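Box 3.1 A note on notation
Throughout this textbook, protein chains are presented in two layers. The first layer is the amino acid sequence; the second is a token string describing backbone geometry. Keep the layers aligned when reading.
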Amino acid sequence: MSEAPVVTLGSDCTIRTVRSLHDTLTAALAGAGRLTLDCAAVERADVTFVQIVLAADTTARRRASGIALVNVPPAVESAFQRAAIALPSAPLL
């Protein structure tokens, strides 16, 4: 497997952009041993974002890897809180 790619997320990580985000994560996971999501630019996130991150992490775990969230802004923290899912203090693994 190749080195862990970094996916830099855009400002809008909501249901409006879920198809594009899904396609991006699917492509990034295709050959990755581990995937890092740079959340620094995220200004809007919703429960759809949480679901897609968790689904991608499940896929990565099946390959004995995982997803890491870095540069987590308040919008991402809030989305995880609204979904009643604890935002991991360490990378998802």
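Residues 66 and 85 are 17 Å apart (CA to CA). DSSP finds three helices and five strands in the chain.
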